[in-house]
Design a protein that fits this description.
It is a single chain. The chain has about 70 residues and is mainly alpha-helical. It has a domain of about 30 residues. About 40% of the residues lie in helices and about 0% in strands. The longest helix has 25 residues. The radius of gyration is 27 Å and the shape is rod-shaped. It starts with a helix and ends in a 20-residue tail after the last helix. It comes from Niastella yeongjuensis. This is TRASH domain-containing protein. Keywords: Signal.
Length: about 70
């Protein structure tokens, strides 16, 4: 009976170590920024908004565009 309990205890310990190592692999380093989705960017095409403002107005997905909170909605 003692050998069965020893085998069971060893199995539980090994299982916990295995799960703990997998959980550590999935954690992100807090200093590394999250990888953003890589999107194939299109070349900028001037629109009426560019002509009205006198400067380029980049649409989401165009080279030169910087996402804001409005984009993320």
């Amino acid at each position: 009976m003692k050998s069965i309990s020893k085998v069971f205890a060893a199995t539980v310990i090994l299982l916990n170590l295995s799960l703990a190592s997998q959980a550590q692999d999935k954690k992100q380093d807090p200093e590394k920024p999250k990888k953003e989705k890589k999107m194939k960017l299109k070349e900028h095409v001037c629109t009426q908004a560019c002509h009205d403002s006198g400067k380029h107005v980049y649409a989401h997905g165009e080279k030169g565009h910087v996402c804001t909170d409005a984009c993320k909605k």
